[in-house]
Write a structure and sequence with these properties.
4-stranded antiparallel β-sheet, alpha+beta, 15% helix, 5-stranded antiparallel β-sheet, globular
């Protein structure tokens, strides 16, 4: 009987062997894992590597939720070695870039989009390359600038358009300054496609206000959006290759449009947000959200940081060493839309800290102790909107 029983048991395949021998079943299991886990699992075996890197493999978990974000490069710290503020301790040690890219003192992050970063020379007038980089798998693409970029025509903004749910290909949208008339500037838009590997240089130009900020556009709903201190601004439909006008939120007639100060502009999970105030450092402000058709803005959240000031007294102007008026020491880094509305929060920098603020119940907690550059107080006082670069784990190849 023992012999028969052992014989019967030996004929049975273990569940692990069943999964390992069935590619369809193994793929379905792997698709349900977080992207960060999949990045580690690529090294389990050549077989797993081939499954995870297959062009048709796509994770089921929401790939658009960031794991953290890169802080902007501050003046006086212009080498490409940005600080990563993680949402989990998993990313406390993170190698940002290949050595040949990070060693250059004139390269910085220009924009980010759904897991990819575009890096380039700080001097937009130069003819050096752009770099599209995936920090998750450290894949890098080198993209030469168009031949006619130089002293006369130079880039004033570059933005990534990438939606991995629609296509593995990405585009670079480059805004090129053609001329500077007295009250406006004339620009053209050039498009680089990773599918063709070429630039499409536009022959059409258009006039825009001097107050339009092309250096930090945001990809939302298939278009690149820019903000302005004027009554209206622009967005560029990437597929239709067409520029459209969109409104900016109104401001009071007493203060005027010249007084508006953008504190944050970014996208999260298909929502475009804007924070602006008429007073730098004001601790009560609104978070605006754009309508899906870009017809206007509405107030999504009302923020009051008064309780945070009690917990973090270095936010108080007298403690921050600011000059030229009262200015609370903070700036928004990122607005994240949760799967539930009550899970939505904002990440802020306060002196020496990075703090998470729940946009619904107004609670807050420390995310990260951050030792900033010595001149960050100057940066906070002079620059009303710095932005940050979301880190979204991605399997995409560039």
């Amino acid at each position: 009987m023992k012999t028969n029983r052992l014989s019967i048991l030996s004929d049975h395949t273990t569940p692990a062997n069943t999964v390992a021998g069935n590619d369809d079943l193994l793929t379905e299991i792997l698709r349900r894992l977080p992207v960060i886990t999949l990045l580690r699992f690529k090294s389990v075996s050549k077989h797993w590597f081939s499954l995870i890197t297959h062009p048709h493999f796509s994770p089921l978990q929401n790939p658009n939720l960031p794991c953290g974000f890169f802080l902007p490069t501050f003046y006086g710290n212009e080498k490409l070695d940005p600080d990563l503020v993680p949402f989990k301790s998993t990313f406390s040690r993170f190698i940002f870039a290949p050595r040949d890219l990070s060693s250059s003192g004139s390269i910085k992050i220009l924009c980010s989009c759904n897991g990819l970063l575009c890096c380039g020379d700080i001097n937009y007038r130069c003819q050096s390359n752009f770099y599209v980089y995936n920090p998750s798998n450290q894949k890098l693409a080198i993209i030469p600038r168009p031949d006619d970029i130089g002293v006369t025509n130079h880039v004033i903004g570059v933005n990534l358009a990438f939606d991995p749910s629609k296509s593995p290909q990405y585009k670079l949208i480059s805004v090129v300054l053609i001329s500077r008339p007295p009250y406006a500037k004339r620009v053209r838009i050039d498009i680089y496609s990773s599918d063709t590997g070429d630039w499409n240089l536009s022959v059409q130009t258009f006039s825009v206000s001097f107050t339009t900020i092309f250096s930090r556009g945001v990809y939302f709903n298939g278009a690149i959006h820019w903000i302005s201190r004027s009554l209206s601004t622009y967005y560029f439909d990437v597929d239709q290759e067409h520029v459209q006008v969109m409104p900016m939120p109104p401001v009071s007639h007493e203060l005027g449009y010249s007084s508006r100060k953008a504190r944050y502009f970014g996208e999260s999970s298909g929502h475009l947000h804007l924070i602006e105030t008429n007073e730098l450092g004001k601790i009560q402000f609104d978070v605006f959200e754009m309508e899906r058709d870009c017809s206007g803005w509405f107030v999504k959240y009302c923020v009051d940081l008064s309780l945070m000031v009690n917990t973090y007294p270095k936010m108080i102007p007298d403690s921050c060493g600011y000059r030229g008026g009262l200015c609370y020491g903070f700036f928004p880094l990122y607005v994240l839309v949760g799967e539930r509305n009550e899970d939505s929060y904002m990440v802020l920098y306060v002196p020496g800290k990075v703090v998470r603020y729940n946009l619904v119940d107004k609670t807050f907690k420390l995310l990260f102790d951050y030792d900033p550059p010595s001149n960050i107080d100057y940066f906070l006082r002079i620059h009303t909107w710095s932005g940050s670069f979301p880190f979204i784990a991605s399997l995409s190849y560039v």
